[in-house]
Amino acid sequence: MQDFVLLAANLDRLIQALRAAGYQVMGPTLRDGAIVYDEIHAVGDLPQGWGDDQEKGRYRLKRRQDGAYFGYAAGPHSWKKFLQLPRRPVWQAQKTGHSMQITAAVETVPAMAFLGVRSCELHAIAAQDRVFVTDQYRNDSYSQRRAKLFTVAVNCTSAAATCFCTSMQTGPGVTLPCDLEMTEVIDGAEHFFLLRGGSADGEEILRQLPLSPATERHHRLAQDAVRRTAEQMAQGPRHFDSADLQALLYRNYDSPSWDQVADRCLSCANCTMACPTCFCSTVEDTTDLSGDHAERWERWDSCFTGDFSYISGGAVRADTRSRYRQWMTHKLATWYDQFGSSGCVGCGRCIAWCPVGIDITEEVQRIREAESG
Amino acid sequence: MSKTQGRPKLAVWKFASCDGCQLSLLDCEDELLQLADAVDIAYFMEASSEQVRGPYDLSLVEGSITTEADERRIREVREQSKALVTIGACATAGGIQALRNFADVQEFTAAVYAHPEYIATLKTSTPISTHVPVDFELQGCPINKKQLLEVISAFLHRRPPQVPPHSVCVECKLRGNVCVWVAHGTPCMGPVTHAGCGAICPAYSRGCYGCYGPKENPNTSSLCHWWQQELDADRATVVENLRNFNAAAPAFERESRRQEQRHGEE
Fold first, then answer.
1. Is the same domain home to B206 and B143?
2. Is B185 on the interface with A (CB under 8 A)?
3. In angstroms, rounded to a whole number, what is the distance separating the alpha carbons of residues B87 and A202?
4. Nearest C-alpha of chain A: how many angstroms from B9?
5. Which residues of A touch B157 (CB under 8 A)?
6. Where is each NADH:ubiquinone oxidoreductase-like 20kDa subunit domain found (chain B) (predicted)?
């Protein structure tokens, strides 16, 4: 497939081409001391020259030495907030006399283009697709949003210390289909994007951009940048062999490590909300004062809350130990049985955004150590 | 008379409190007329001097118990009420006046009043549930008026109220707030605090100070440990945050006493 070079000075042309094609462009932007995902109107909205430092329970913006547009790692938001809405109306009911009219909520679903989707994030979207689109309980709201989605993936050239996609085989290079794939390269004074179309819609956008054919040198620079990112993670403390995770967790329901992590875990649900694959939701049914009007809303829920496992007689998972075990075992083991893949893509959000720095890779290690005595 | 027939009778009671939670009810401007249609507001001194005698179908109780007279009065209220719902931090967790529980109330009255001998007060400020059975506790200082309407609607239509007891963190994440704890290093009570406010403080880049009281299953000791070890909070700050408006909530009280005790040992 033919690759092209788009000079960084022309990046705005890509954004405008997507907007002109009718897409609402969603991408990274600076807000409240972090790089979040929001609507992007022009290249000036992107966090150019900003990166981040991340560790367990800690995230800080950092000025980069260069003018990279995508020089940051996974932040507080994930794309799921645009596909699986945090809150949405499901239906409403109106009582008139002795009859009741139930009306399903109709959404106006926007066509969105996600700008700067990392490989781990493509894997996360694919994981949610298996839950909401191809599994037996289809979610129409998600499916409609997903069907109209255009993805501009970016090969990852900046991992945080919390990243471990190489351990989960989800990155840093793009390995799943997307509409456009790009790699940001900064080499001295030269700043460009190596671009490749991945779909007919992607090719159509490419045709509108001021591109030049990529040479072998462009390819080499792009590959080097992604390779360096992979090497950085491979040498980091969170690199581990994930091949036996399912068996490991199934052998260790009674590991003493669950008690240790429960001492620290706040059961606050931050990890599940930040996780790009966690898909659980609840429905809330309400009436107004008159009782003539009722509504059902869907909202993100978490296996870390008491209500989540509440059935007649009480919560099945009343204590933190059982909640953490449920989450981690689902993420790394039972997800395979349910959906045929891992539920973890190695983005590290649960590590950085855990207020008390609980690190899922460290917990794997603790379980291993406890088992080997 | 016929106007009130068939409608449930609502009463609103005040004990030791600032009236802010009752005012939340009056603050429901758009829904107030609908409320008056749905219930017979039989006893609500903040709104009307007209008093309809009990029994009442639903009693909303604001305030904590701080006097012997109120210890008797809350039992009378309970006897007259089919359902009793506490509203706010005072009624649910003793309120800010429960700070006396950690000190000598006589010293306080001596310092504040010219004639402390005129003050007849208990040594402690206690939640309503210490004295009588409570059907539902709506937390918050003050309560959220939308949640209050939800609780009343739920009561009227015999369904469980949608008042999730999870953390403020969930509300932050639903709003898309950037975590002030992780991204700014700001100590925040959100992870142990009951949702309901809509995460107002973190939305304006300040830490939650726990005015909605403990969430279900709160891990206060882990929170306090991280505040001190990683966020450079001193012990006084930790204790002050546990002892704002919900000082006598068991989870917060236990932890604040534990923190003080550890301080004493060091």
1. no
2. yes
3. 56
4. 14
5. 287, 291
6. 18-154
Q: Do A300 and B170 touch (CB under 8 A)?
A: yes
Cross-strand partners of B161: none
Examine the domain organization and report whether B206 and B96 are in the same domain: no
CA distances, A363 to each of A17, A323, B224 (Å): 45, 14, 22
Q: Which residues pair with A99 in a beta bridge?
A: A96
Residue A300's alpha-carbon distances to A243, A288, B78, in angstroms, are: 30, 22, 37
Q: What confidence tens digit (pLDDT) does each residue in A213-254 have?
A: 999 999 999 999 999 999 999 998 899 999 999 999 999 999
B28 domain residue, yes or no: yes
Considering its fold, how many domains does chain B have in total?
2
pLDDT confidence bin for B4, thresholds 50/70/90: low
Nearest to A244 by CA among A358, A120, A368, A370: A368
Domain of B49, in residue numbers:
9-156
Contacting residues of B for A356, CB less than 8 Å apart: 191, 222-223, 225-226
- Please report residues of B whose CB lies closer than 8 A to that of A32: 177-178, 183, 205
In the block, tokens 């966690």 appear at A278
Q: For residue B127, is it within any domain? A: yes
B150 contacts on A by Cβ (under 8 Å): 286
Q: Is residue B163 part of a domain?
A: no
B136 with B225, same domain: the answer is no
- B32, closest residue in chain A (CA to CA): A289
B230 at interface of A, judged by CB pairs closer than 8 A: yes
- Using the 3D structure, point to which of B100, B128, B156 is the last residue of a domain: B156
Q: Is the pLDDT of residue A1 over 80?
A: no
B227/B118 same-domain check: no
pLDDT surpassing 50 at residue A278: yes
B7 contacts chain A (CB < 8 A): no
Q: Which two tokens stand for residue A8?
A: 């960084």
Which CATH number do you get for residue B151? 3.40.50.700
